[in-house]
Amino acid sequence: MGLFALSFAKPLAPIDFDLLKLQTLPNTPTLLLIGGIQGDEPGGFNATNIFLMHYKILNGNVWVVPVLNKHSMLLNHRGIYDDMNRKFASLATSDPEYPIIQHIKNIITAPEVSAILHLHDGSGFYRPIYQSPLLGPNRWGNCSIIDQESLHNVPYGNLAGILTQVTGYINQKLLKPIHQYHIRDTFTAKGDKEMEKALTYFAIKNNKPAFANEASKELSLEQRVYYHLLAIEGMLNQIGIAYQKDFELTPTALYRLINDKSLDVRIDQSIILPLYGLRGTLSYFPMPQGVRLDTIPLDSRAKIIGLLEKNNEIWLKYGNKLMTKIKPEYIEFDHSLSAIDIQVDGENKTFPIPSIIEVKENFQIPPIDGYRVNIIGYVIPNDPSPKPNETGITIHHKDCIPKFSIDKAGKIFRAEIYKGDQFSGMVLIKFP
């Protein structure tokens, strides 16, 4: 274990990964796509995230592990229990990540899987011959990797031939000449002791065609994702999986999609938060008591979101990015209320819990039998009650104290619903 992990009084426990299947027809090729085996390589897991949100598989199947090493991603660390990509040759059952390694091994060796593409970020720019400190054979950035030239009598076993086509596809779309991709054959079986421990070689030993794609750490995040997505597209082309995407593949478009301001997350089916524009800290924020963070359900279009307990706070992470720090108020959650009636600008409407509700002028929450509502940032004049019930009151933006909004712009306020001493859910009121 590294010094980084040891610096925590309570080391972050390993978190198992998600497997998402974009599947159309049985008995057709299946590509297993894996990102984030190292938690500080955001190009790979942002590429899988964009792929899941914006690509559609027309025939064939793609199984996606958005981020294999979730716990290290949350800490922006290569591997808090050492390098996960060196645990595939042998591993003691006492290793904290042993269950995760066994889980991904079972998926790699599943009979449905036709090929594996493993995404990494590497230093510099690989060149077969030394050219400069940035370009040479000891660099890993912008190259496509195989462990050997071929697998005999295995579909898609012409590893070198497939990568020749994939790198050709990428090199037709280079942003700059220095970004040129080359094939790197590690000839693992001929004595590369480090690569013998890696995920792709485990796959090769089990007769599974496996490839790795490296994007250079010299590049911006959106440029890394650009090259990873080109590699994915090239691989899909080679194994006969048709696809379509809903955007033009450019770094500018990817920057917009990675930083999509419409993204939100639902926490425990009771709370909704936009990912972008949040205040740096959200205080007195309800969170379920007595529940491990990694077991709290998170629902979002983005698949690289997690919660990290640190410094008596809960950090909401989107990949390596910190979106806000929650100062929790732990409370028992009650899921008995699934919807709420609200009068919005004079019109009565019903909204699911949780929701973000856009209000132009004012809103009013009618009384709810057995429940009370607390509008954080609104104070009833001359009301000494420690547990306010702010129903039946018409509330305008000017009635809400800006510093209690959840967003930096002072426009979004939370309406918390309680049943006795239990938290029943939240809706967000968004003013223009």
Account of the 3D structure:
The chain contains 8 helices and 26 strands. It is α/β, with parallel strands linked by helices and 432 residues long. The strands form 7 sheets. It has a 7-stranded mixed beta sheet, sandwiched between helices. Strands 14-18-17-16 form a 4-stranded mixed beta sheet, with no helix packed on it. The chain has a 4-stranded antiparallel beta sheet with strand order 20-19-22-24, with no helix packed on it. Strand 17 (313-318) and strand 18 (321-331) form a beta hairpin. The longest helix has 19 residues, at 221-239.
Task: Kindly summarize this structure in a few lines.
With 432 residues, the chain is an alpha/beta fold. The chain has helices spanning 3-6, 42-54, 70-74, 98-108, 159-171, 199-205, 221-239, 251-258; strands at 20-23, 30-34, 55-59, 61-65, 115-122, 125-126, 135-136, 143-146, 182-185, 210-216, 242-245, 264-267, 271-274, 281-288, 298-299, 305-310, 313-318, 321-331, 339-344, 347-352, 355-358, 362-364, 372-375, 395-396, 412-419, 422-430. The radius of gyration is 25 Å and the shape is elongated.
Q: How many β strands by DSSP?
A: 26
What integer value in Å does the Rg equal?
25 Å
Our measurement of the CA-to-CA distance between the termini, rounded to an integer number of angstroms, reads: 49 Å
* Strand adjacency order, main sheet: 1-4-2-5-10-8-9
* Helicity, as a percent range: 10-25%
Point out poorly predicted stretches. 1-9
Question: How would the global form be characterised?
Answer: elongated
Question: How many distinct helices?
Answer: 8
Overall mean pLDDT:
96
Largest sheet: 7 strands, mixed
Q: Would you tell me the structural class of the helices and strands? A: alpha/beta
Strand content: 25-35%
